[in-house]
Design a protein that fits this description.
Layout (H helix, E strand, L loop, with lengths): L5 H15 L4 H47 L2 H9 L4 H5 L3 H31 L7
């Protein structure tokens, strides 16, 4: 705090004895000690108030960051970061292929049902298959 050595303290004590006198020196030292204690208490209180203000400010910053994260559309952020020009999205769009596959599956199923129905009907009408 204060860079005072033993020689400086000795000089201050000698001057205090000469100026104040040996009779009033204990009272003066007690008063100085009380004043130093009050100054230290005020400094501690001031420091704690500053620390509280810093904590509140940091807390508000954290709250703002959390609310901004909650309001952020994560899917858009990821797509902006990974696929800025949209090439990846276009290459991964399989909707046309899926529609073509569905169409071919529907056509394939309808074609498979027709011959089965024809073979069932022809086997019922075929007289050679019937036994007398």
């Amino acid at each position: 705090m204060l860079d005072i050595g033993w020689t400086e303290i000795a000089v201050i004590v000698v001057i205090a004895i000469v100026v104040i006198g040996p009779k009033d020196l204990p009272k003066a030292m007690r008063t100085v000690a009380q004043m130093i204690g009050k100054v230290k208490a005020m400094m501690r209180e001031f420091q704690s108030n500053i620390d509280d203000m810093i904590k509140e400010t940091e807390l508000e910053e954290v709250k703002n960051q959390i609310s901004s994260v909650r309001n952020m559309n994560l899917e858009n952020k990821i797509s902006e970061t990974i696929d800025k020009d949209g090439e990846l999205t276009k290459s991964m769009d399989f909707s046309k292929e899926a529609a073509d596959f569905d169409k071919s599956m529907k056509e394939g199923t309808s074609e498979e049902k027709k011959p089965a129905a024809v073979t069932d009907a022809s086997s019922k009408d075929d007289p050679s298959d019937k036994k007398s």
